[in-house]
Amino acid sequence: MQPNEVKALLESRIDGCQFHIQGEGCNFQVIAVGDAFEGLSPVKRQQLVYAALSDEIASGALHAISIKTFTPVQWQTAPENVQ
């Protein structure tokens, strides 16, 4: 899979989030930013993203995924937000 394919899958399955994807093959780093994470624990946030990719993980198309999640307010001061 390519990063743009992973991004398209996530955008079609989780509303109101922006995704920043890096990686190649079956190993990806996902940064997700959105209101969907407001009020959720870190574990629940990760579960939300994993659930959106469960078919691809089960098939082996995706193997190693690193996930970081932020609300829009958190993203403003996140060290990963380098622009």
Automatic annotation (TrEMBL):
It holds the Pfam family BolA. It comes from the Bacteria. Signal peptide: none annotated. InterPro entries: BolA, BolA-like_sf, BolA/IbaG_stress_morph_reg. Belongs to the BolA/IbaG family. This is Acid stress protein IbaG.
